[in-house]
Amino acid sequence: MVKKFLWVIVALLIASIAIPFSGCAPRENNNIQTGEWNDDTFTNYWSGITFTLPPDIIAADTKTFESVPGEPKDLYLIRPDQGSNITLYYVDLIYKRLRYMTPEKYLNNLGEAIMKQELPSNTSFTRSGEFKSASIAGEEYLVMHMDILLEDLALYQDIYVRKFDNAMIVFMISYNDNSKDAIESFVSSIESVDYSESSAKPEPIQPEADQEKDSNLMDTSALMQMVIDANQGHLDSANEENDDLKIYMSFEGETLVFTYKYVEYVEDAELVKSVMDEEIKSMEVDFKPMVSTLKTLGLKNPAVELRFVNNDDTELVKYEIK
After folding, report:
1. For residue 28, with 0-12 CB atoms within 10 Å meaning exposed, 13-18 middle and 19 or more buried, which class applies?
2. What is the mean pLDDT of each run of 10 residues along the chain (322 residues)?
3. Which letter, b or e, does each residue of 180-197 get, where b requires 16 or more Cβ atoms within 10 Å of its Cβ?
4. Which residues in 202-240 are b (16+ Cβ under 10 Å) and which e?
5. What is the pLDDT of residue 310?
6. Which of 233, 167, 165, 172 is nearest to 202 (CA)?
7. Which residue ranges does the chain devote to CATH 3.40.1000.10?
8. pLDDT of residue 197
9. Cα–Cα distance for residue pair 215/36, rounded to 1 Å
10. CB-based contact 144:159 (threshold 8 Å)
11. What DSSP designation does 216 have?
């Protein structure tokens, strides 16, 4: 049971590490505005785009749209016959204390987080080595390309990022060999629209020295809280299913602490230690990538600690992984 729960936490954390780079957070940047539909025409004056849907692409229904990650999100378009899709969402850099994050650094961090995820045995990701520049509606975006192999089906994903008004504008575009031309044609049809009607103003360009200085002074407490918040629902569900252990997540300094609390009082602490000494040896290889990922998020000396306690909070055994 303990080993099962260790694996659950590994999977949850790796999934949540991408959260700080892909939305899913409260909004503090009130300049961010979502767009509006007028029949089949979509317009967003803040992000400066407008388009009319072609016959082979549809907007997702409300239920599907709400299930898509990213917040605030603006679009989720689907090409039903080919399974291709386009998502547009925004990343609030004010909330994340990352006002001087660059598109290149954002894509690097997001790419590293994606590549660290545990995948099914029949699935593989390959990330392009270099980013390219591309235009949408006359604005320049930095693009990361990924190849996804699902059994014998080849899929592709291009992630377009542009920084504007203390936010990242992000298009995630997925397609396959059959839909590639149609998706490219649609993206090229997106037109610019004057954002003068919006209250948004382009953020001033900061000197390079200030950018580097401020990017290294990210509010880590906000990041830590996001990791915890992103996992709380999963932890609650896992705890409901287990009668032996309850799991809690917290940060102490830059150490991510998993506390495993026994429901029933444990008389033999040495037995717990003996069992866990063997379990931890086989799990270290999975926890160490978490430490590396936390470093990419801006923590200087991160660590992971596994702490097993009795039902009266008496510590039984703990392990630190750096």
Report:
1. middle
2. 42 42 51 89 93 91 66 82 80 71 86 68 74 95 87 83 89 89 94 68 43 44 64 70 84 88 89 84 70 69 89 91 86
3. eebbeebbeebeebebee
4. eeeeeeeeebeeebeebebeebbebbeebbeebbeebbe
5. 92
6. 165
7. 29-207
8. 55
9. 33
10. yes
11. T
Provide the H-helix boundaries in 133-249.
Answer: 180-189, 208-215, 220-241
Q: Which amino acid is at 19?
A: I
Order the strands of the 255-262 sheet from edge to edge: 245-252, 255-262, 303-309, 315-321
Contact 283, 260 (CB under 8 A): no
How long, in residues, is the chain? 322
Torsion of CA 143, 144, 150, 154, to 10 degrees: 50
Q: What pLDDT does 37 receive?
A: 93
Mention every residue, 6+ apart, whose C-beta is less than 8 A from residue 220. Answer: 254, 298, 299
> What are 7's two structure tokens?
């694996």
Give me the DSSP letters along 52-95.
E--TT-EEPPHHHHHHSS-SSEEEEEEETTTTEEEEEEEEETTT
Token reading at 169: 């504008």
Domain 29-207, classified CATH 3.40.1000.10, yes or no: yes
Please tell me the predicted confidence (pLDDT) of residue 12. 41
Cα separation values, 278 from 129, 248, 261, 290, Å: 38, 22, 19, 20
Q: What tokens does 212 get?
A: 């580097």
Burial of 199 (0-12, 13-18, 19+ CB in 10 A): exposed
This prediction has a pTM of 0.57
